[in-house]
Amino acid sequence: MRNWLFSTGQSAALLITAFALASCNKPSGASANAGEDPQIKSLGTVEVTARLVEIPDGAIFQRDLYDYATILKYEVVAVHRGAVEKGATIYVGHYNPWKPRADAADKRAKNIGGTLRQFRAGQLQRMALETPMDDHFMGGIVDKYFGKHDGPAYWAVWTNTAD
Fold it and tell me: What are the residues whose beta carbons fall under 8 Å from the beta carbon of 90, sequence distance 6 or more?
């Protein structure tokens, strides 16, 4: 019995060591492929993984009779396609941001979507984007950053969670 316990203990120790060694080369946090799907890879001219910096007061509100886009501020953590710098601050317009991305599209903004259910500050998102936003959306825009940033506002075509 004692020999059996000893050999079982050795096997368990070897198994634990193998798991520990196998996980040593894995990056912590979100993987490079987090949030990737066929839409993210094919839609838009820019594809980034970015962290939502903040949600300004009044930027997202539910109005069933009023469709709008709101501009949100992001820090780019990875560039997958397009001419955006890693570490850059970008401003992205999201249509009807109070809706889950899978339910946001309608006759005014077709072909948008994603897996993101709700915007939260600090959240990591993978997005397929177009620029400039004005070429892709003509409607009400809530921009709490108006006059506070240079450069284009991007239009979010597809937004997935990447956490």
Answer: 48, 50, 73, 74, 76, 84, 151, 154
pTM score of the predicted model: 0.80
CA angle 42, 29, 155 (to 5 degrees): 35
- The DSSP bridge pattern shows strands 46-54 and 153-161 to be unpaired
46's tokens = 């820019």
Of 97, 75, 70, whose CA–CA distance to 87 is shortest? Answer: 75
Helix, strand, coil % over all residues of the chain, rounded to 5:
20, 30, 50
Q: List average pLDDT for each run of 10 residues in the chain, which is 163 residues long.
A: 47 40 38 83 97 96 88 98 97 97 94 96 98 94 94 96 92
| pLDDT given for residue 64 in this prediction | 77
Q: Could you identify the residue written with the tokens 């890879």?
A: 41
